[in-house]
Amino acid sequence: MKKQTTRSGFFNFSIAGFVWLGSIVLIAGIVHIVSILMMPRVASKNAYARIAAVAPVNQIYALPMPVPGTEVVPFEDASMEMAVCRWSLDQGPIRLRGNVSAERLTLLSFHSRQGQIFYSLSDRSSTRGRIDVLLVNQAQLEAAEANDNEDDPAQELRILAPATEGFILLQALAERPADRPEAQRRLQSFTCGTAR
Amino acid sequence: MFAVFRAIFVVLVGIALGLWATYLSVESGLGFDKISAGPWVAYPKSGTPDADPYVRANISRSGQIPLGVAEGISLIAQTDSAGGELLANCAYVVRGLVPQARFWTIGVVKPKGQFMENAAHRYGFTSEEILWDDRDHFEIQVSSTARSKNWLAMPQSGRFAVMMRLYETSLSTNRKSITEQSMPMIDKVSCR
């Protein structure tokens, strides 16, 4: 009789132990998955936050020359001249316009605040050396389409943004150190701001 | 009362373990679509909407800006081709082939991606300025003492990483073609 009680007590303990251990693993798993999924929303030093700390909204801002101590984000390419346009669609669509030159690498990428690249293009996508982008939300896209003239179609590239805030990164390759001023001029040809 | 304490203990240990796992996975650069080619590591989907949650967490925590699909692909080596740490007090030679790309750049940075002070004020080379040995091969000397031809100056000590960026490469759409053989080797020559 006494032996049986002991045995059943041990058995109970081991089931309880598994339940507690299972609970720990379950909670750890949930916390792990939630924290990984939440990271892009809560990370305070993501690329957008770093750019927002230096760049004004809705205009072109040239990032400092890539040398030690001036990095805005890690893993910058030292051969690139960079500029950003931090945008907000609250005041209306964003117009980005500029000139690129054939055989010189110019790259544009469109980033949401949470770090998703929703569009990217290079100088090879330009129309006769011009880049003309209208960044819109769904309502702004419909408004732009309502104003379209069928006989004279708009030349601009319309990009639908999946967020209301983000940034455009412009990069111009300086093939040699002596090409830096030319790469800077290529970026300076760009304007970015709320479209009227 | 004992059961309440035990429940609180279980919840706290569970939270701690979960956050620890998150920290470890982000620090180690875990990702479902991570590509390893010898010492080179790339996350080709890092900027796209189909980036996996680990890669997204890693990118947002480090603050780096990944390259878009039309821009190219970025590869980072934190070790040499033999798997050893990259140390500034050692001399390395980076040589071999480069996958097809319109332009490429190669440079040295600190392990977390900051530039390294160096007397020559050179942090990398582009495909246009590099001196080629013969038609398809190049050789870059990475060393704290001056070398001829393609030389990347190193500080006296510290760890570093090598970053290679392939701009407008066909690999952007065909990621399986990155192999150890198609990328440059990073060979240690000597140490001080």
Total count of domains of chain B = 1
Order of helices and strands of chain A: HHEEEEEEHEEHE
Question: Biggest sheet of chain A, in brief?
Answer: 5 strands, antiparallel
From the N-terminal CA to the C-terminal CA of chain B, the straight-line distance is 64 Å
Give the spatial strand order of the biggest sheet of chain A: 1-2-8-4-5
User: Low-confidence segments of chain B, ≥5 residues, pLDDT <50?
Assistant: none
| Corresponding CATH architecture of the largest domain in chain A | Sandwich
Shape of chain A: extended
What is the structural class of chain B?
alpha+beta
Sequence stretches where pLDDT stays below 50 over 5 or more residues of chain A: 1-7
Helix content of chain A: 25-40%
What CATH calls the topology of chain B is Jelly Rolls
Radius of gyration of chain A: 26 Å
Largest interface, by Cβ-Cβ below 8 angstroms: which chains and how many residues each?
A: A-B, 58 and 60 residues
SSE order of chain B, one letter for each helix or strand:
HEEHEEEEEEEE
Q: If you compute it from the alpha carbons, what radius of gyration of chain B comes out, rounded to the nearest whole angstrom?
A: 20 Å
Let me know the average pLDDT of chain B: 88
What's the quaternary structure here? heterodimer
